[in-house]
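Hi everyone, sorry if this is the wrong subforum. Our group has a chain we'd like a structural model of before ordering constructs, and none of us has done structure prediction before. Sequence below.
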Amino acid sequence: MNTLFAEALKKLRQEQGLSQHELAARLIVTRSTVTRWESGLRLPDATMIARISKILSTDVNTLLTAAAESDEAPNVIMVDDSKAILADSLCVLEEVMPNAVITGFIWPREAIEYAKMNRIALAILDIELGSASGLDLCRTLLEINPRTNVIYLTAYPDYSLDAWNTDACGFMVKPLTPEGVRLQLGKLRYPFPGGADA
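Answer:
Right subforum, don't worry. Here is the predicted structure as tokens:
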């Protein structure tokens, strides 16, 4: 639940004397979208937060800080076409990020559908996904949410140059290790709270 952002948004909206319907109309979203934000079920992206702050006459950093400090567990996904590697890697991710919601996928299309319904903080992608490409999956995930951190995990270091031609922020060679994950978490383009243990 995004309770910190939800409470801040509701308070600011009420101080401006706006109903949820009126705020929705000014933002060009549905009233149910505003309801979800204020109930903590969803969090708007940075562009929408900037629009909200302008309409509610508040400093954008107030809302961005509330969003960043939200108590929502970050969503982390991993996509690998090997069930064995995926199972082992998910255990490593759970060890390093005990506060995250970690979900594994074998099929890229399932990861894409999940990303459309959930804000992904971190995606760890194999580059060779059967007939699919992790490079293409990266581009699709970033179209859905440009603030998704993407790290490639591959058995083939030769892919590193191709990987950097996408907007990924990290690259690891298999097998996944706790030390390797911690190192990459320190280099994320968009750090997220609760992403790593102490």
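For your construct planning: The mean pLDDT is 88. The longest strand covers residues 120-125.
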